[in-house]
Known about the structure:
Layout (H helix, E strand, L loop, with lengths): L9 H5 L7 H14 L13 H19 L1 H13 L10 E3 L4 E3 L8 H9 L8
Antiparallel strand pairs: 1-2
Helix pairs in contact: 2-3, 3-4
Amino acid sequence: MIKRIEDWNYYELLNVERTASREEIWKAYQRALSTYNPDSLATYSLVTEEERILIMERIQEAYRTLRDPAKKKDYDLALLKHSVYVPPKAPFRKSVGKMEIEEVGRKPGFGEKLRRLFGRRKPPAE
């Protein structure tokens, strides 16, 4: 399913990472402007004129927000509040005082599996 342009966050719209510098944001903004320029062939017959104007307004709004450190911080906090929870990679258990990582048993390697499968067996008792 393709995301609608209204559902893109500002970083997706400008195609930059959240850690992007002001210079990277500026370059991405310039690329986006040239892509959705009225004379650009990139959008030829893909979007209507009204859609192109709405996209340009959203790009400008994204740039105004991300270039200002205070607005960018507020925007990042708002994104974090609405972000999807990703569970941690390591198994955790809660303790009264702190979070502790449980010990996970070592998985047998490929060599160990082969030794188990084709290892020497004891000769039958006579």
